[in-house]
Amino acid sequence: MNVLVLEALEKPMKYGSVPNLEKGEGQVLVEVKAAALNHRDVWITKGMYPGITLPIVLGSDGAGLCEGKEVIINPNHNWGDNEKFQSASYHILGLPTQGTFAENVVVGKDKIYPKPSHLSMKEAAALPLGGMTAFRALFTKCQAEQGERVLISGVGGGVALFAFQFAVAKGCEVWVTSGSDEKIEKAIKMGAKGGINYKNADWKDFGKKTGGFDVIIDSAGGDGFSQLVKLCKPGARICFYGGTRGNITKLNPQIIFWKQISIFGSTMGSDLEFKQMIDFVAEHKIVPVVDSVYSLSEGNKAFQRMEQGLQFGKIVLTP
């Protein structure tokens, strides 16, 4: 079968043929029809991820055919018994186990779910990891409810875009931030109330304009996080699932305790949350945004697009 394999860090991946996979006890073989990139995949190619073993076929997101049925893959391995946090042995598909950037992948029988019928294979492949991460942050951690005012930062990214779509489907009033006016306009067309470009933001005026937020979902951290705290309404909840802008600094503790603000960290999601997310998507007929599609043999071009930050939605690969 053909795969896209990472043989060395900081080098282009190699597209080529490897022996067909053999499934073990309790496992099934999925014929991959579409897979999707995550920033995790890019970080691994640069050596910015723990426990890297080479060579490795990356890819955590995928959808395809299993025993004649259309399925979507849960990328979780060993979440554990505690819904509050993952176990010490937790990992996800694509490292250290072979991932979805291949014509076939072997997963546990309990890791396949019926593909939501309203989604194409490409749309379904875009959903698993980003959708699960967004669902946990927005609903498990922040308990977002209909009618609440929600701010999603960095709306062009996969997880942020899912959090935005989920909040809109829940009936929240959703605002967004981005470094691109074009991406903000796209979000407004999809149901956002409005947005602000963080590159030239006047946060004080933005707070007055919006009236503050009940829930904020962030992926950046860094110095800008202190501005998000200032946008909080009393009793607000903030959840961050990434730190692309570095350590959080300049926080004012008086604002946090006086407003009774709760701040959560979150990543990935449990098997239960994955199922809940899939059910939510099916119920509300949510369609993941696919930015672009590349053949598996063009995988390095897809990685370049993600590195450049040009995407609005998920980048998909097809064998």
Task: Write up what this structure looks like.
- By secondary structure, this protein is an alpha/beta fold.
- The chain has two domains: 157 residues, Medium-chain alcohol dehydrogenases, catalytic domain (Quinone Oxidoreductase, Chain A, domain 1, Alpha-Beta Complex); 134 residues, Quinone Oxidoreductase, Chain A, domain 1 (Alpha-Beta Complex).
- Helices cover 29% and strands 28% of the residues.
- It has ten helices and 18 strands.
- The strands form four sheets. Strands 3, 5, 6, 9, 10, 17 and 18 form a seven-stranded mixed β-sheet that branches.
- Helix 3 packs across helix 4.
- The protein is globular, with a radius of gyration of 19 Å.
- 46% of the residues are buried.
- The mean pLDDT is 96.
